[in-house]
Amino acid sequence: MKKVIVGNFKMNTTPSEFKTYAMSLATKAKSSKNTIIICPPFTHLSTAQEFLAGSKVLVGAQNIFDEESGPYTGEVSAKMIKDVGATYVVIGHSDRRNKFKENDKMINRKIKTALANGLKVILCVGENLQTREQKQECAFVRKQIDDDLKGIYENELESVMIAYEPVWAISSNRTSKSKNVSNKDITKMAETIRKEIEAQYSKKASQKITVLYGGSININNYKKVLTNEAIDGAVIGAACLDVDNFAVITRETY
After folding, report:
1. Where are the domains of the chain?
2. Are 140 and 168 in contact (CB under 8 A)?
3. Which of 59, 73, 208, 238 yields a CA-CA distance of 20 to 30 A from 201?
4. Catalytic: which of 102, 137, 165, 196?
5. Which one of 93, 102, 127, 137 is the catalytic residue?
6. d(CA 63, CA 66)
């Protein structure tokens, strides 16, 4: 089964280091039948376009600002990343929600801005450990979806993927109380996401929406996760930094 494999570099590597990475991945991913999207820092996007154009690897950005232009020092617009070759953008990642206090209202504006500029969106949703311990994770994610997609039309969902990332299961957020995410947990949340899309849009929309999983996936556990038929792919964090390991994950047949 064909899967979507997203590599999120976060704030890692320099542009010169990424050049070598991109050239290597373009070659190593030639035989892949999966959809591969790599999301490096803003400073790497031109390099990504130069060395990945024409390859199997698509390019995404890790964030955008929610305004088209203006006096917003340090911000980057949807139009800017589109112009340097990005076709996807990650919106609502837990890093942005937690460290930069982005709320659902802001995330909703970013999604609308991205879609208006012809970008495809990878929307991240997911609960923290406290919410899970209170057994409110499904209600929490349903509300995130409702708020984040407010005012988005059904036909626009063709350009939206939803990535479930349990915040408590991500390496940088793990605590002594954290448990490993089971395939049962992943299946339950994927079904929750689809049911909410059906409730807000239609059964057809729920069947067509691409649902990804992102939570400390690595070379040792990727097969167990990606063979789960409830999800359509995965967002890979730290493990994507090793081009050989990432290439193995992208070439696998699921």
Report:
1. 4-251
2. no
3. 59
4. 165
5. 93
6. 10
Whether 108 contacts 151, CB under 8 Å: yes
CA-to-CA distance for 231 and 89, rounded, in angstroms? 20
**How far from 20 is each of 139, 225, 245, CA to CA, in Å?**
43, 29, 15
* H helices present in the chain, as ranges: 15-28, 45-52, 78-83, 94-99, 104-116, 129-133, 137-148, 183-200, 203-208, 222-226, 243-251
> Whats the size of the chain, residue-wise?
254
The correct CATH number of 4-251 out of 3.40.920.10, 3.40.50.2300, 3.30.200.20, 3.20.20.70 is: 3.20.20.70
Structure tokens at 246: 């990432």
Identify whether 93 is a catalytic site residue: yes
- Active-site residue flag, 44: no
CB of 182 within 8 A of CB of 224? no
